[in-house]
């Protein structure tokens, strides 16, 4: 039988193609030319993501007309769910590229490599978000992770960065193995790795014919792998060390793009592929969510390093997002499935912007204090850099969930879903965890605003592109906080999947 | 309360009340920091403007109507059934006016004690933002909107206490923020649950609109009780009701004077107002069911606050504890479920704002002069500053509740109204009035009487600017005390409607004074 290649819809694939081509082009041209003048690498990266984002918007529009379908022989899903996450990933990547310029400028690390790695890792994340085939999802996961391993270790001057890369690599490899083994078991149970076929298999077989043990074991292993990637407790132990050691711009990328892609993949696996086992996975998600909320916010409070605090707070945010996943699990697969998935995706997009903004400030302060991001380094920031302090405060208040910021909209969305599904306990736990978390953000704000600048500390230099990134992030945070309606109505249709 | 009175005024009065201070805060943030004198000017003009608008609302308020007036309603987040819905009725009217008047006085009359012109900018910006938040809380008729404002006021207050407070300010500010936020956490879940359960029980759609929820939804008794408790925790922390009050003495003592004035004057009322507007109105059955709990805690608060105030060595802390006692009266009146008592409660909210606001102001003036708040450091001030002492006396007597001054009217109405339904609680609470006289007069005696020692001999007399700041307070104190009718006749229709709503929902019959004998057993058996 001759091999018949799948039909390729180039238009639908254009956002991915643009990113891959851009990454390759940047790498090749960058390698052949002498060091570009300041900011150009970052500008080129932003331009590539912008092109991809514009194409993604066209695709988004197109999906509205043609409805969701699958691409390349069922390997990729062509739906708004994927496109929303992809747009979030592209936005976060562009912001990270802007910060990266400030972090790298004038160091030996400056060059096209980091940007090319960012772009290729982002492609991996995009594939994860849209994979309709578990093997493809794994490929996306590995593309993202390999990029991240190198990026985490990319600051060759600091041993901490090397250590961070190594830790992430070892533990990440372990998690990938879990994920892969999970796919294998699921394949054993359902005879396919394609999400479409898995769904069909569940719909067409009666439960007596199924091998539930294999499916459940596979589900459990997949969950472990994904929980590692989203750093949910008890699979979070890598994240504080890695977040602290990695260069701040890379940490921002991990916490935004990495987390968004992993959560998108989690939703694909749980809600799209395995809604028939929702009563099996939902309790597991419940436990993960509660543990992440409580452990993340409590441990965040006792840290003394701001990057570690943000790492633990990102664990707590993962808990919040899991609350949304849990809510989405109540009626997963039904015709009227509620808007839990929408709430999760909105949270992911908004959190990505917030976390990049927060780490952008951390890059500025950390760079100025020889890589130290201890709470002391932030003392008196308001006296030295008032505008930067204002921006940082907006991000912190948003993360605490104060109204009129995007963080409030995000939190409200997931809690609303939890309450509408009558998961009152988890909603209350989440809100109380948010209070503990608020103490953490207040601690940082106290240091920034109320402590005096230590003697002899000079004023931080704010690289212009980092300033741009912080400004954009602040504007998004406040705009969405005050007027969330547009985002909510635009994302209303994200829960129709191609499968 | 169903039909909102269509007002002839097309001007979006209430929206202006919220946005004007917010715009002022925004303007201050964009002004160049090299010109600190502009900051104060902008803050003054804005707050005076807000005060004028609130007075205009008072003037145009239709005193015969119990419904919401000047209603403004626009869709905001339609996907979630949330609208920008503002309105004012007799219950909120005077709180709005109080807010409108307290802020300009706090801004014009007091400078932050560690004044550094460079820091004027954030100080005034935070104050104006606070005003916007407080206004919004009192005017919101949408649960989401209310929650947004209720939460947002924490941020400026946190920074005001933390940035311009006294020695233990960071601790106090953090405690204040976290305490209130714990309460809000429960309220948020309760709000959402209310909305979703209401959709399933009578409304058929998602809306956060207070009036639609209160009139359209019916909750099973046990459900309503859970939901009510969620709200009640948030309000109880905010009031604060014993034993959730421990944030208050710290926050009040450490806050800058303007912060204390605003905190005592209007922010605590967010709790008592919340009970009336959201607790009783949305969940009448649950409120009736839990009344013994609140009455008891209120009475404990009255006695405890008074005793604790007696023992304080710090004058500001004394005033703070007296707030715990005063707010106990307001809660007592609220949960007595008679028109008189609730009217008295609403009135007492305003009175407490005026008299305690003025007390904090004067304690601030003492601190400015002597750089101490310790009672033992002060002596014989009456001899060196008789006018100051006279003003203090009037304010203090109002706080005690002496007839002829405003405090008496509210307290008397609460006690006499509650006597019908909560006799034994009232009997105990009435001793709180005596204790109030004890701690305030004793403090007065120690601070103002006697021979001034070396440090106090040079205590400066009341200055013109200070006198002008205090004058409106004293005018309100005397006017309301002598002639409370204009105020009462505006509050009463709204309270009457609220009681009627409760009667409709629970079959509760409000006892009339003539029927004391009949209702006697009713009151005790519950």
Summarize the structure.
The complex is a heterodimer of chains A (499) and B (526). Chain A is 74% helix and 1% strand.
Order of helices and strands of chain A: HHEEHHHHHHHHHHHHHHHHH
Shape of chain A: globular
Count of extended strands of chain A: 2
SSE order of chain B in H/E notation? HHEEHHHHHHHHHHHHHHHHHHHHH
Distance between the termini of chain A: 27 Å
Relative strand content of chain B: under 5%
Question: Can you characterise this structure?
Answer:
The complex is a heterodimer of chains A (499) and B (526). By secondary structure, chain A is an all-alpha fold. Chain A is built from 19 helices and two strands. In chain A, strands 1-2 form a two-stranded antiparallel ribbon. In chain A, α3 packs antiparallel against α4, α13 runs antiparallel to α18 and α16 crosses α18. Chain A is globular and about 75 Å long. Chain A starts with 9 loop residues before the first helix and ends in a 9-residue tail after the last helix. Chain B is mostly helical and 526 residues long. Chain B is 73% helix and 3% strand. Chain B is built from 23 helices and two strands. The radius of gyration of chain B is 22 Å and the shape is globular. Classes of the chains: A mainly alpha (499), B mainly alpha (526). At the A-B interface, α16, α17 and α19 of A face α5, α6 and α7 of B.
């Amino acid at each position: 039988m001759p091999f018949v290649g799948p039909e390729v819809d180039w238009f639908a694939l254009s956002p991915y193609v643009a990113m891959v081509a851009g990454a390759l082009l940047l790498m090749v041209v960058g390698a052949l030319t002498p060091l570009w003048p300041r900011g150009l690498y970052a500008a080129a990266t932003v331009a590539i993501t912008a092109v991809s984002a514009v194409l993604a918007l066209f695709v988004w529009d197109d999906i509205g007309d043609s409805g969701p379908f699958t691409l390349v022989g069922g390997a990729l899903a062509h739906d708004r769910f994927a496109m929303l996450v992809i747009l979030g990933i592209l936005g976060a990547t562009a912001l990270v590229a802007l910060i990266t310029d400030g972090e790298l400028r004038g160091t030996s690390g400056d060059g096209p490599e980091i940007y090319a790695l960012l772009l290729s890792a982002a492609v991996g994340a995009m594939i994860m978000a849209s994979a309709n085939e578990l093997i493809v999802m794994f490929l996306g996961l590995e593309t993202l992770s390999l990029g991240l391993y190198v990026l985490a270790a990319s600051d060759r001057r600091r041993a901490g960065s090397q250590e961070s890369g190594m830790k992430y690599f070892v533990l990440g490899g372990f998690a990938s193995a879990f994920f892969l083994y999970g796919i294998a078991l699921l394949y054993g149970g359902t005879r396919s790795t394609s999400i479409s076929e898995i769904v069909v298999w569940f719909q067409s077989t009666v439960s007596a014919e199924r091998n539930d043990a294999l499916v459940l074991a596979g589900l459990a292993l997949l969950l472990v792998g994904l929980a590692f990637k989203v750093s949910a407790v008890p699979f979070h132990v890598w994240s504080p060390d890695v977040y602290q050691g990695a260069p701040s711009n890379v940490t921002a990328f991990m916490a935004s793009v990495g987390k968004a892609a992993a959560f998108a993949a989690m939703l694909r696996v749980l809600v799209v592929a395995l809604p028939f086992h929702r009563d099996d996975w939902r309790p597991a998600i419940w436990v993960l969510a509660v543990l992440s909320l409580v452990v993340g916010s409590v441990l965040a409070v006792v840290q003394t390093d701001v990057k570690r605090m943000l790492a633990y707070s990102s664990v707590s945010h993962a808990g919040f997002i899991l609350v949304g996943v849990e809510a989405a699990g109540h009626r997963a697969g039904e015709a009227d499935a509620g808007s839990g998935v929408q709430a999760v995706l909105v949270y992911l997009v908004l959190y990505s912007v917030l976390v990049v903004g927060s780490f952008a400030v951390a890059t500025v302060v950390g760079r100025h204090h020889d890589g130290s991001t201890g709470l002391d380094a932030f003392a008196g920031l308001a006296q030295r850099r008032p505008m930067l302090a204002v921006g940082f405060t907006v991000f912190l208040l948003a993360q605490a969930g104060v109204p009129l910021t995007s963080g409030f909209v995000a939190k409200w969305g997931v809690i609303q879903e939890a309450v509408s599904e009558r998961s009152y306990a988890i909603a209350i736990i989440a809100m109380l965890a948010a209070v503990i978390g608020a103490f953490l953000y207040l601690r940082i704000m106290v240091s920034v605003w109320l402590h005096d600048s230590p003697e002899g500390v000079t004023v931080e230099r704010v690289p212009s592109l980092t300033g741009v990134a912080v400004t954009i992030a602040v504007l998004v945070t406040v705009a969405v906080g005050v007027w969330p309606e547009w985002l909510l109505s635009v994302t209303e249709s994200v829960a129709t999947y191609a499968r | 309360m169903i039909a909102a009175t269509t007002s002839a005024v097309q001007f979006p009065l209430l929206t202006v009340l919220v946005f004007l201070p917010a715009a002022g805060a925004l303007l201050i943030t964009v002004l160049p920091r090299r010109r600190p004198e502009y900051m104060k000017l902008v803050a003054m003009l804005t707050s005076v403007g807000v005060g004028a608008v609130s007075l205009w609302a008072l003037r145009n308020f239709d005193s015969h109507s119990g419904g919401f007036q000047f209603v403004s309603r626009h869709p905001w987040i339609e996907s979630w059934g949330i609208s920008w819905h503002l309105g004012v009725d007799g219950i909120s009217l005077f709180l709005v006016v109080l807010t409108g008047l307290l802020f300009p006085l706090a801004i014009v009359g007091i400078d932050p004690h560690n004044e550094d012109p460079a820091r004027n900018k954030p100080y005034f910006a935070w104050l104006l933002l606070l005003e916007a938040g407080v206004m919004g809380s009192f005017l919101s008729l949408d649960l989401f909107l209310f929650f947004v404002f209720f939460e947002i006021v924490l941020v400026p207050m946190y920074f005001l206490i933390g940035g311009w407070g006294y020695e233990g300010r960071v601790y106090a500010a953090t405690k204040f923020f976290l305490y209130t936020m714990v309460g809000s956490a429960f309220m948020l879940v309760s709000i959402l649950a209310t909305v979703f359960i209401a959709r399933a029980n009578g409304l058929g759609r998602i809306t956060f609109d207070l009036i639609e929820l209160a009139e359209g939804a019916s909750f099973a008794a046990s459900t309503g009780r859970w939901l009510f408790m969620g709200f009640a925790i948030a309000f109880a922390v905010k009031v604060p009701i014993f034993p959730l009050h421990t944030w208050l003495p710290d926050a009040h003592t450490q806050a800058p004077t303007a912060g204390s004035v605003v905190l005592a004057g209007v922010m605590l009322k967010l709790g008592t107002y919340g009970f009336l507007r959201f607790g009783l109105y949305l969940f009448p059955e649950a409120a009736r069911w839990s009344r013994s709990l609140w009455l008891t805690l209120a009475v404990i608060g009255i006695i405890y606050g008074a005793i604790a105030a007696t023992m304080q060595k710090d004058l500001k802390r004394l005033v703070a504890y007296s707030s715990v006692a005063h707010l106990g009266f307001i809660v007592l009146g609220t949960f007595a479920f008679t028109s008189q008592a609730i009217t008295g409660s609403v009135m007492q909210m305003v009175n407490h704002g005026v008299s305690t606001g003025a007390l904090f102001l004067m304690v601030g003036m003492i601190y400015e002069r002597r750089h101490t708040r310790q009672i033992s450091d002060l002596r014989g001030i009456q001899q060196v500053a008789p006018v100051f002492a006279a003003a203090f006396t009037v304010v203090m007597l109002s706080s005690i509740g002496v007839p002829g001054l405003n405090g008496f009217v509210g307290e008397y109405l609460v006690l006499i109204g509650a006597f019908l339904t909560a006799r034994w609680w009232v009997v105990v609470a009435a001793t709180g009035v005596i204790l109030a006289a004890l701690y305030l007069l004793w403090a007065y005696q120690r601070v103002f009487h006697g021979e001034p020692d070396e440090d106090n001999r040079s205590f400066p007399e009341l200055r013109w600017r200070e006198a002008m700041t205090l004058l409106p307070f004293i005018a309100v104190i005397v006017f309301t005390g002598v002639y409370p009718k204009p105020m009462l006749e505006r509050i009463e229709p709204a309270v009457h409607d609220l009681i009627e709503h409760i009667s409709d929902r629970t079959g509760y019959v409000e006892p009339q004074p003539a029927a004391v004998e009949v209702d006697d057993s009713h009151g005790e058996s519950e």
